[in-house]
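1st attempt posting a full record on here, be nice pls
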Amino acid sequence: MKKTFFIRPCHDDVTSYLHYYSKELLIESKKRGFKTINKEKADANALMITGIIKKNNPDFIMFNGHGNPNTICGHHDEPLIKLNKNHSLIKNKIIYSLSCSSALKLGKKVADSKSTFIGYIDEFALGMDINSQAVVHRDKRARLFLEPSNLLVKSLLKGNNVKEAVIKARNLMKKNISKLKTDPFPDAKDYLPYLFNNLVVLSLLGNDSAKL
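the predicted structure (as tokens):
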């Protein structure tokens, strides 16, 4: 049985949104018959994550959280994976890092003919409605940014290879950009450059034919 691992810190506005949206991916993973491992909130710490990866050797890992070119962070921005320290821990797997800039250096170091790293070479933008932050599911702005990310993972769970999954995510980004051009809400056009940014900086590195 193939294994999936979801890492879901939740300590500020951004990680709270990522935590909420990734919940449906856990449901999808279980429905598809994967052994699904979930560590969230305070459990998304370096000691816990490192131990689980070493013990379970998951086929797919999704990181939700903050990051930079050298690092993927967990709960309260604790470094989980660092370039030239423990990046080999996530080799020979399919990785999706929903973390700012982590594909720029870390992802390139991880990726090779047996390893796939999907992530962002610059900041991942997340539009939010300040009036909906207490009720995330009502935030129409955030949905435009996070649904493409969820579609990418769902496509992998359904058996698409990584290249196909990334194409589907990019196509939904383009569709959402078109939606924003029609002013679905008063400040819609203010979000256009940020959604376009996500389209540009989403990167697929390494083995682009890998699948679960």
